[in-house]
């Protein structure tokens, strides 16, 4: 795992989280390997992080991720003119959805139902057994994230937490919790970014890197 060695070399304080980062990677690798998807939720800056993660997973991060030959042939056969453009530009994706990004659904549910269950409702709608829910919370106690994590487990999903150093309800209910060694909100967020970049790099290399010899 060259990416994680680079991470802890650049951010030595994250050495304490190394094992949990690797565990989270394996959970995500197994999810994607079985055709699953990632649902991500957070509030404020953590919502921005959720969107950032989706951007790294749903398109090329460092690698080109060209369509495979079989899919490329199908695109051209479907429509030669349009398919040729698609073959040149489409990129392989690791399915990920940020749950903050659906304002019509969000506001309708908040108005009609229980506002704190907005993330949980989407986990209920999108989630299935084998998927993963990533809850990002600097405190680890954000109620709407906890409701979503509870729903995820009930749906047969794994839960990954990304929090600060303090123990929290999210840490206790997660299958894996990455607790970065800071307690101030902005300092926690500054360490969350390199952690999830590392996870995205490892996943991209696993699914879109060069084929390794058996």
TrEMBL record:
Highest taxon of the lineage: Bacteria
Cleaved signal peptide residues: none
UniProt cross-references to InterPro entries, sorted A to Z: GmhA/DiaA, SIS_dom, SIS_dom_sf, SIS_GmhA/DiaA_subfam
UniProt domain SIS: residue ranges: 28-209
Identification of the protein by name: SIS domain-containing protein
